[in-house]
Amino acid sequence: MAKLNTPKGKLVRKLGVNIFGNPKFDRLLSKKGYRPGQHGKMGKRPSTYSLQLQEKQKIKFTYGMLEKQFRTYFKKASQMKGEAGFNLLVLLESRLDNVVYKLGFGPTRSAARQLVSHAHFMVNGGKVNIASYRLKPGDVVQVRAKSKKLDIILNSMKMIKGDLSVSWLSVDKAKMEGTFVNYPERDEIDLTMNEQLVVEYYSR
């Protein structure tokens, strides 16, 4: 994940969404669902710019990006056919660390990123330790044999109840492997994200 100088709890409250996936931040938001600071409860109307910036920050930190890396993703998305905002989300969802998280092999994106960096996974039978590795339809992600007894992976997989809620991925819990079936459609990606605001931010 990108190195944060701001405490995670304050950042979650500032953005108003649990970008880290840890259940403790859901509890924090339900208890303190307002911005941090002495004026956090005051209903100040945000400017258009602040809304654009906040959405950019929310998506950037959700996927663990530093600004330079996130800007590179946006530039690539802008050069692809179709809508730049949607392309951006597809690029981010296709990252190996995100897919490992969505498959249930890691409890959070940051944990999944660390697991990938420590070479606990293979893609199509080959070891991959690059968190930003972009998957394509048909790619198979496997937990390496020597890593199948790691508590963090086993405990995370225990949280999977029945089928995955992600239709563009499939998982075989017995084999500890998953398949990137297809690129997600917009309604299959977190609908709380407003990627158009990110487009507007970079188009200023």
Quick gist of this model?
By secondary structure, this protein is of the alpha+beta class. Helix content is 42%, strand content 8%.
Primary descriptors:
Structural Genomics Hypothetical 15.5 Kd Protein In mrcA-pckA Intergenic Region, Chain A; 9 helices; 8% strand; 204 residues; five-stranded antiparallel β-sheet
Order of helices and strands: HHHHHHHEEEHEEH
Q: What's the architecture of the largest domain, going by CATH?
A: Roll
Beta-strand residue percentage: 5-15%
Low-confidence stretches: none
How far do the termini sit from each other? 27 Å
Structural class: alpha+beta
Mean pLDDT: 88
CATH topology of the largest domain: Structural Genomics Hypothetical 15.5 Kd Protein In mrcA-pckA Intergenic Region, Chain A
Strand order of the largest sheet: 2-1-3-5-4
Shape: globular
> What portion of residues is helical?
40-55%
**CATH H level, superfamily name of the largest domain:** RNA-binding S4 domain
Can you count the beta strands?
A: 5
Largest sheet features:
5 strands, antiparallel
* CATH classification, class level of the largest domain: Alpha Beta
The radius of gyration over CA amounts to 18 Å
Q: How many helical elements?
A: 9
Describe the model.
With 204 residues, this protein is of the alpha+beta class. The chain folds into two domains: 8-38 and 46-86 and 190-202, Ribosomal Protein S4 Delta 41, Chain A, domain 1 (Orthogonal Bundle); 95-180, Roll (Structural Genomics Hypothetical 15.5 Kd Protein In mrcA-pckA Intergenic Region, Chain A), CATH 3.10.290. It is built from nine helices and five strands. The protein has helices at 8-15, 23-31, 48-62, 67-79, 84-93, 96-102, 109-117, 151-157, 195-202; strands at residues 121-123, 126-127, 140-143, 169-172, 177-180. Strands 2-1-3-5-4 form a five-stranded antiparallel β-sheet, with helices on one face. A hairpin with a 4-residue loop joins strand 4 (169-172) and strand 5 (177-180). Helix 3 (48-62) packs across helix 9 and helix 6 crosses helix 7 (109-117). The protein is globular, with a radius of gyration of 18 Å. The model has no long low-confidence stretch (mean pLDDT 88).
